[in-house]
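A further point concerns the way the authors explain their paired sequence and structure data. Nothing conveys this as quickly as seeing an actual entry. An entry of this sort, consisting of the sequence and the corresponding backbone structure tokens, reads as follows:
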Amino acid sequence: MAYLRTDIPTAFWTDATFASMLGFYGEFSNLSSETIQSGMEVENQAIARCDHAIYSSEWAARSAITDHRGDPRQVHVVPFGPNLENAPSTASTLDAIAKRERRTCKLLFIGYDWERKQGGLVVQVQQRLERMGIPTELSIIGCTPKLEREHRRVRTLGLLDKDSPLDKELLLNALSQSHFLVVPSLAECYGMVYAEASAYGLPSVACSVGGVPTVVHEGRNGLLFPPNVEAQRMADRIGAIWSDEIAYGALARSARRDFEERLNWSSCITHLVSTIGETRLEKAS
């Protein structure tokens, strides 16, 4: 986009700016001054040249304006939907919520980068809930971390292949049967996994970093904490909601409504087409 020459209206849709990634992800740390200057110049040109710079979060959109001098009139926020081939129906999701067992609180961690997504903190939360007298099971998907010791009711499913019918069934069952998705990332540009959780009526427990607050809304489809949250504070909130069957059911159903209203691809694409369609009409006239 930075070097594109055309009379056709142009737009791009992404989850971060170059400036917002500096020092945020490990891969964007310790870059040379020449690399940083080049990256900033390319991003500046791309934003200035396009008709619409569209980002999946308010965090990225703010960076486009403040760090890359983007015109606020051309910068827009359109969230992404879930990384699911087929989302479950409303009826099946509500049925799954109603059937979730009450004997054990089931936590689900999904992520490849165990450190960045604070998997160790999730294990601590599970252990705190156990000590609080709440039987708690933790399922880990996406990686196989080396835990300091074996923990009761912690199971690791590893990296699952969605092209494998068996692995796909394991993943979808975990989303459907768990009580909370707990992925408290220290850095996250967006987090499609939270949208996936909402599709299954699964409240997300996350940290307010990067683009996460665009996906996870406190009390609507999950719980938001500061990145330096202590395990006990997180466990207290999770335990209080899970122990109240009415409160938990309301939050789970609210998460599904949030998916239906804004975190599904149909709504996202409708918003996207509406945004770029206005420019096409203006140019055509």
About this structure: The longest helix spans residues 265-284. The chain has eleven helices and nine strands. Strands lie at 11-14, 52-55, 75-77, 105-110, 136-141, 154-158, 180-182, 204-207, 222-225. Residues 22 and 93 are 39 Å apart (CA to CA).
